[in-house]
Amino acid sequence: MDRKKELKQQYKETPIEAGVYQIKNMKNNKIMVGSAKNLKSLNGIKFMLENNGYTTNNELQEEWNQFGKEDFTFDILEKLKKNDDPYFNEKKALEKLEEKWIEKLQPFGENGYNKK
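Request: output the structure for the sequence above.
Response:
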């Protein structure tokens, strides 16, 4: 029981980090690039995929169901650098960071799950 409490406390103390991630299908190398204000939310995406509830991208959900979770990886591509500037817009900075990675990886059509 102490281990469970310890893990909960560790989770709470982990700083919230925004960034860009990719979900990769290891069978066909298709990827989906996305961003999150809190990268800890990737656990929620995994949970939705495992329970056939990921409505954000039907093609990804269908292939997850077809191939199974062991054929997918979740990788953080880049974390958003903290900025103390009072005029810093985290949302816009995160959108630009995601656009950069989408431009670089081109996760469309045969290469991925993103939509143009």
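The mean pLDDT is 93.
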